[in-house]
Write a structure and sequence with these properties.
heterodimer; A: 312 residues; mainly alpha; Cytochrome Bc1 Complex, Chain D, domain 2; 46% helix; 4% strand; B: 438 residues; Cytochrome Bc1 Complex, Chain C; Helix Hairpins; 3 domains; 18 helices; globular
Amino acid sequence: MRFILGFIGSVFAGILLISMIGNLATYFGNKPEPLAAEEFHREPKALHLRSDGPFGNFKDQAQLQRGFQVYSEVCSACHSLKLVSFRDLKGIGYSDAQIKKIASDWKTQVPSINPETGEPSTRKALPSDNFPSPFANEVAARAANNNALPPDLSLITKSREGGAAYVYSLITGYRDPNTYKNEEGKPLPADAKPTGNLHFNPYFANLNIAMPPPLTSEGQVTYAPGNPRPTVDQMAKDVAAFLVWTAEPNLATRHATGITVTIFLLFASILGYLAYRQIWHDAKRVVRVTGPLEPENQAKSKRAKAKQGVAG
Amino acid sequence: MSFSWARPYEPKHPMMRWLDERLPLPRLVYGAIGGGYPVPRNLNYFWNFGVLAGIFLTIQIVTGIVLAMHYFATVDGAFNSVNGLIMRDVNAGWLLRYAHMNGASFFFIVTYIHIFRGLYYGSYKAPRELVWMLGLVIYLLMMATAFMGYVLPWGQMSYWGAQVITGFFSAFPIVGEPLRVWLLGGYAPDQAALTRFFSLHYLLPFVIAGVVILHIWALHIPGSGNPTGVDVKSERDTLPFHPFYTAKDGWFAAFVLLLYAVVTYYAPDYLGHPDNYIPANPLATPAHIVPEWYFWPFYAILRSFTIDFILPAKLWGVLAMFGSILLLFFLPWLDKSPVRSGSYRPVFKRFFWLLVIDVVILGYVGGAPLNWWRTALGQIASAYYFVHFLVILPLVSAFETPDPLPTSISESVLHGEAAEAAPAGQTKPRRGSVATAS
């Protein structure tokens, strides 16, 4: 049986090695040109938010509210926020009365049924409703956006590599494809330039994104007095911070609970370890050398035993 | 779970005697995980991982049952019930979900350490062949359960993972495609597949628990192995499971749970893939489909077969991938060396560490996007994997000269003790130490 198994193993290994030689020969025989998407794609810029790190929280509610303002005045024209409900806005510091007003003033109404005729109808949103989507369905969304589908933003910072930093970089990352040069100073090749209704953005995976630059000028959103100047950069940061919250409204609770649990388990480990030491006190010295016995250790052991007068 | 060398249970309290005569449950507990189970005294921390695997199985079952109360197994509702209802509205739902997600990863981490412990210390050798094989059955069930669990949130990776993995079956000629359609209940993963995956994902953990009982039962017949691989010769070589190993397992479990808590609370998505936060879309294939990290080594083996040599490359890949696990069932007969522990096998030891590096490389290649050098690296690593188990191991066990073994566990733990227990220059044995008793 061992012979058969050895033969099977050799067959697998042989085919793998033939495959490898074939692949390497193909690769070196016809070295592929690097793709523009690899050469010109950029990693997200650094972004620091209050929600970062093990103590991250949502206490910068002014920023989250500014981000919500950017979402409602700009992004929500095309992007839905299906998993978030109006009542959740309490988590970024709005009062019940404010939430009620935000819901009933929301520009898209909630699909409903006319109670008298039974005809499809719409009604004003309530705090218990999730944010209504700007388009009735995917077909409508595509029809209004040159056949591109604006993704739902509820989980966007979790569903993209780079998270909030990616959102911030993407929004502020639009460049002129005719003058853009990558870090090595190489201009964009003609075939990588955007066509049709696409826009060049080096932070987007394939460099050309259907979304036109959403934030184009300072003051596009008017912030309440006492807030920073609404520069494009500031608005992008604010909306990224808001979208961290929409992706995980329980993030701050998670971090806070984590500290308690970690400290508890740390104490449990230490107490458990001391109990273990206590229980093993006598047996311990004997088992201290639990590791594998090397021949030199065995010689040592023999010598120690000889000294002690133990036979063996 | 009685075995010949367990200490007999002698109930002291009349109540316990009454119970024991009618239902010998106290006897079972005492003999299996109590003071009646003598365990070799020289176990190192690698022997803690079996208990840890049991703890993570329990965590998975408990969190999973509660999650199932809030989960909708429908293609329209699954994603929103996980990412909306459970993560946002269920009390501590986010904790249950993250604990379950990362619990799966930790279950695999401790199981992999447990398996490699067995590989190094020859835990698969006589008389523990069945313990090893039952362990492999548990591992296969774990893989099936984990795969189906990953499909349930119905994100992009769930969907495309299901598509790719069930696609393995279509590699087999003639029966393959009908088999795949039968398994999925359709031509592509859809409602039928999701509902049956949910049903099986709920069932299999209990099957695992059943096989765990057999695994422990089979272990308790010969008793636990130990780092020297030398059989227990007398009671002097052992310590009762309780309180010695309950204490050791206890504190170490708290420590591993601490690591688990840190990941669950502070990096819950680190081991996952961002694409699974995008709802499943049968019309948009992700740029880079990868399974969960614990399948990466096998995924690397699957992808390494790139030429149609007599059979199609895909079929070779699937056969090799299944073969890479199935060959472990033959391990007790592939490695004929009478010495169990790798510590006394100088040649085996070197190849063992090569295998560890090899599997790490396979994991890396399986998780990363393919390019020319990663493909070549994966092919070398896959070839080594098969050669290691099917060629090198039998040859090493035939030609290797093992190092001399200690005559008993007591001797092995005694080494250097006298010198260690006393101040430098003096080797007076201490009272109470078992060393003096020898």
